[in-house]
Amino acid sequence: MQTIALYTRQNEKSLQELKRTGAVRNKEIYVRLHMGVDADHFSERYRCFVEMAEKFVSRPQGVDYPIWCTANKHYCKRPVQGELVYCLQVPREEIIFFDSLKWDYVLNYQYCPKNEADARTFNQKLEALGIQNIVNLFQRKYDGMYEEIKHEIKNSWSRIFDLETKDPAIIEGNIWQIKEEWIQHIVYPGDSFFEIVKDIEDSY
What whole-number distance in Å separates Cα of residue 78 and Cα of residue 71? Predict the structure, then answer.
């Protein structure tokens, strides 16, 4: 079984769930607490990600959102007060890899083009319709309007899973849960991160 090294920074309270259930799972309430005033936006966008991602890897019962990970220790966020880093070895079939730059299109309700030519073609469609800001199309006042364009935009979002690079600064790997048996190390604030993870070879 092929495994991939992943790293993820999580709230220290996740240790309680790990000890109680043997796994860490992401709940909507966690996202809302973390995102504050932007919680509605991120919750809705994460639900969009979930809808696409569970077509690749089945979502376990009791999981609301995925856990966001990086596949390279150099791009891992370091532990800070109240948070820690889980260093994992995860079976390849459990990981949902995606392009984080393309994810920005989804996060901002933008069209995710196949290439530059496709982007130009789509922009020409918008100009022909007199649409200057496609974000506005997803406001409630435009319900029932420009449905063909909105459908095209939504269909483009699945391209975040079309990986055209292996750049670890761009490619991220999400998982539905952290299983206890996947954990190689837990790094706490003040720990020497690279000294602890030196035995882990980045394998993506």
Answer: 14
